[in-house]
Amino acid sequence: MRSWENPVVTCDIREVGPRDGLQNEPPVPVADRVRLIDALAAAGVRHIEAASFVHPAAIPAMAGAEETLASITRRPGVRYTALVPNRKGAERALAAGADELEAVVSASATHNLKNLKRTPAETLQQIAGIIELAHAAGRPVDAGVATCFGCPYEGDIAPAAVAAYARRLVDLGADSLFFGDTTGMGSPRRVGLLLDALEAEGIDLGIVGLHLHDTRGTGLANAYAALERGITRFDASIGGLGGCPYAPGASGNVATEDLVHMVEDLGIPTGISLDGLIAAAHLAEEIVGRRLPGQVMRSGPRTQLVPAG
Ligand code: COA
Ligand code: ZN
Known about the structure:
TIM Barrel, binds zinc ion
């Protein structure tokens, strides 16, 4: 069933701008990161990737993760999550009060080595440890596969290879899965092929989310293709902030406000205020000091009227 034909469906949009977005910008002060997270929560976003507990030398823009989590104004009902690369990151994130952890392995071995300095097999071992630590603390792990639709170093990645990683992650105890189009090489057709491969591998599509980048202008089309297959969990970044420092040519995620605008028009509630998001997108622009690619933040909602005369 298409997502919008199911009256009980809502969309779970995880805001990743404060992590995936800001990690790719010259470092901004923790206070600004906190302001952005609080503005997103005030707009009704209930799932926010607030920080990553990586080595600060690897990603200087993510230094101060503990301080970030300690400084946000926690709103009831909002999950503040963190990306972790290894056990050490998981220990730090759990101690800092992250509600959920994200861990990722790249389907491209070359990207995994550049990003995490580990082979995919070594990273899977780390993820096993991350899951063990998180579960012992009573918190879930959303495990992801990056470079799902291709890699700038290795080219196309076979959907069956991505599905094999998904199977490993489920077997390791991951609570949910996300699939990252790290460098925007996906297309609606390829989204369909990946979901077919996941189904063939016996993966329940109910636990699947997509992490889309709009590098080649296909971000929203990819989300729509996934919605047609019943997927309702998406990552997005405010204003389209983002990229990946270890993937040449990577650009921002699908803009949260553009995605919410499209999804709500399909009749799927997100619980998020579009006006609040647009305000947060302008705040994000102010913080990074450059124009962001989001479109609805400029044009306004489609029903916005202008004086005729
Ligand atoms: N947080 C803080 N420090 C960490 C850490 C973490 N998550 N993981 C390792 N370290 C420290 C170790 O304690 C060790 O410190 P020491 O020298 O004082 O003993 C040092 O870093 C080296 O540890 P090692 O395990 O050898 O790390 P590494 O140099 O192989 O780096 C990663 C591996 C994964 C930690 C590093 O590459 C990283 O943080 N990458 C993040 C990549 C990322 O987030 N990309 C963006 C996603 S697209
Ligand atoms: Zn990303």
